[in-house]
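Re: that backbone. Tokens:
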């Protein structure tokens, strides 16, 4: 990767970290995952693991959140990824939360990197019903660059609190791919059905959350193999 680009990325990460520590709530997270499965796609092929660190901060009650996320392949530099995510949430009532945001995807470590070929941009809009049973949430993503298409995700989550420091969550999601990152002429359809179980343990400012996931791939254009994957998240806030 071009050293100038790499220096700019590192400088930006340091700037965000220092600024956020002064003006906003700051959260660090490091995930180890046995597979990098995203919307049914295997983005670190051949069942290879990845490290996925992130930094997130919000500006208090204003509704804005910024997240800097990356995936580091443990076997191939071409699959390293750094994403920027801006989100705004608006609480309409205690029963309805709307959201909107922008994601900038980047694969900066690819040989002969170029912004036109190795980045993409996406906007999204969401609606969540936090007080309804299983907390349903619907999000529509539209990639207007290299991904060129929509992806719709319906999610639900059930959480049981065992004590003040121990809880467990069960998440399900169903995705619909309207042509995003698919070959031209591919028929759209339901693309992935996901199940995730994740207990969490809070130790002062740390939260440790092992997880296990299973993804059913429903669209042949994405793949013909289902995925079982697992890992652990460590969160510091």
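Recovered sequence:
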């Amino acid at each position: 990767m071009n050293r100038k680009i790499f220096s700019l990325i590192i400088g930006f990460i340091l700037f965000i970290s220092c600024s956020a520590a002064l003006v906003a709530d700051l959260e660090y997270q490091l995930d180890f995952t046995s597979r990098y499965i995203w919307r049914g796609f295997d983005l670190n092929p051949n069942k290879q693991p990845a490290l996925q660190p992130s930094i997130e901060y919000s500006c208090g009650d204003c509704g804005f959140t910024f997240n800097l996320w990356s995936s580091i392949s443990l076997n191939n530099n071409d699959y390293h990824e750094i994403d920027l995510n801006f989100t705004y949430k608006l609480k309409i009532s205690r029963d309805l939360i709307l959201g909107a945001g922008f994601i900038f995807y980047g694969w900066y470590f690819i040989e002969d990197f170029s912004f036109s070929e190795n980045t993409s941009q996406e906007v999204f809009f969401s609606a969540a019903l936090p007080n309804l049973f299983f907390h349903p949430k619907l999000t529509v993503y539209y990639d207007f660059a290299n991904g060129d298409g929509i992806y719709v995700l319906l999610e639900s989550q059930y959480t049981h609190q065992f004590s003040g420091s121990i809880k467990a969550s069960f998440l399900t999601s169903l995705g619909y791919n309207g042509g995003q990152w698919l070959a031209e002429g591919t028929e759209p359809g339901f693309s992935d059905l996901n199940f995730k179980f994740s207990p969490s343990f809070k130790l002062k400012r740390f939260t440790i959350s092992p997880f296990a996931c299973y993804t059913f791939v429903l669209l042949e254009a994405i793949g013909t193999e289902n995925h079982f994957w697992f890992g652990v998240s460590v969160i510091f806030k």
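The domain at 3-236 is CATH 2.40.160.40 (Porin). The chain has a mean pLDDT of 90.
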